Amino acid sequence: MRKPLAWLVIGIGDIARKRVIPAILAEPRSTLYGAVTRDPKKAAAYPGIRVWTALDDALRSSAIDAVYVASPVSLHAPHTIACLLAGKHVLCEKPVAMNYSEAQSMVAAARETRRLFGVAYYRRLFPKLIRAKQLIAEGAIGQPVLAEANCHGWLNNQDRGWLLDPAMAGGGPLYDTGSHRIDAINFLFGRPVKATGLLSNVVHRVAVEDSATALIDYESGSRGIVDVRWNSRVARDQFRVIGTGGEIDLDPLNGPALRYCGKEEQLPTHANVHYPIVENLVNAALDGTPLACAGEDAIWTDWVTSEVLRQAAQA
C-alpha cells in the first residue's frame, strides 16, 4: 500500500477551517502535514502539524506531496507556481487567478513540472450536475440552448474582508460566487467562445461590484446567463438548463433535487462539499484517476471573467 498523501495547506481561513482541513483529515489516504499562515495561533486547533509563516520555508520539506492553496486570489498564481516548481501537486481554491493570463501561466507550470494542478470547482462532482450532463447527452431535453444561473444574497464579508479589495480578490460576486456558476455551465456545455457582461454597484458603494451579469456563448450555439448579486436580501440559488424539448431544473443548485420531464430525482451532495474534490486529487496522485477539474479546464472561467471585465471597462 502506498504511503498517504502528505498535505500542506496555505491559509487557515474560513473555507480551510470549515471544509478543506476537515476533508483532508477525513480522507483515508491523506495526512495533514503542515500549514502556512501569517498567524501561527490559528494552527493550534491542529496539534502535531508543522507550521510556517513563509511558503518558501515550507516548500523545502521533501515530506510534502500536495498543497491546497487557500490564499486570497491575488496569491493563487505565485503560490501555485512556487508549489509546482517545488515538485508538489496542487489543488487551488477558485477562481484560478486574477485574470486569464495568470491562469495560463499556472497551467504552463503544471505542464513543465508534470505535476497535478486541480481547481476546487467542487460542483463538478455534485451528483445532480453529473446527472444533468448525462441527461443532456442522452437528449432528454432535446438540443440544449440556454443555461440560467442566479446566485443572490446580501454582502457578508465576515472573516474574508479581503473580498472587498479588488487588488486581492479581483472582483466581487463575479469572482466569488459567479465563478462557480460559470464553471458549472462550462462543465455542461464545453469551452466558451464569446463572453460579455455588465458590472454595477446598485446598493453597496464598495471597491468591487455588488452585482454582475455574464452572457456566454458556446461553440454548440448554447448560451449561458449568470447573474450574481450581493445586494439582494432575498437569497436565490437558481440553476436550470433549457432545451428545445424540455428543461432540467436544479433549483436550488446546492440542494439535492433535480427535475426534468415531470420526474424528480434526489441526488444529495457529500456532507462536506470539499471532500470529493480532495479525494479526487488523492486518487489522481496515487492511482492516476483523471482530475475532476484540471487547471486547463478551470481557466476557461477566468477567460470568461476577463472578457466580462474587458467589455465592462469599455461600456
Task: Explain how this protein is built.
By secondary structure, the chain is an alpha/beta fold. It has 2 domains: 136 residues, NAD(P)-binding Rossmann-like Domain (Rossmann fold, 3-Layer(aba) Sandwich), CATH 3.40.50; 142 residues, Dihydrodipicolinate Reductase, domain 2. Helix content is 34%, strand content 28%. The chain has 10 helices and 14 strands. An 8-stranded mixed sheet has the order 8-9-10-7-11-12-13-14, covered by helices on one side. Strands 3-2-1-4-5-6 form a 6-stranded parallel sheet, sandwiched between helices. Strand 1, helix 1 and strand 2 form a beta-alpha-beta unit. Helix 3 runs parallel beside helix 4. The longest helix has 20 residues. It is globular and about 55 Å long. The relative contact order is 0.17.
Blueprint of the fold:
Elements: E1 5-10, H1 14-26, E2 30-36, E3 50-52, H2 55-58, E4 66-69, H3 73-85, E5 89-92, H4 100-113, E6 117-119, H5 127-137, E7 144-154, H6 166-169, H7 173-176, H8 178-189, E8 192-200, E9 211-218, E10 223-229, E11 231-243, E12 246-249, E13 257-260, E14 263-266, H9 275-287, H10 295-314
Parallel strand pairs: 1-2, 1-4, 2-3, 4-5, 5-6, 7-10
Antiparallel strand pairs: 7-11, 8-9, 9-10, 11-12, 12-13, 13-14
Helix pairs in contact: 1-9, 3-4, 4-10, 8-10
CATH architecture of the largest domain: 2-Layer Sandwich
What is the CATH topology classification name of the largest domain? Dihydrodipicolinate Reductase, domain 2
Biggest sheet: strands side by side, in what order? Answer: 8-9-10-7-11-12-13-14
Query: Can you identify the CATH superfamily of the largest domain?
Result: Dihydrodipicolinate Reductase, domain 2
Which CATH C-level class of the largest domain is it? Alpha Beta
- Total domains, how many? 2
Strand runs, count: 14
Mean pLDDT: 96
Radius of gyration equals 19 Å
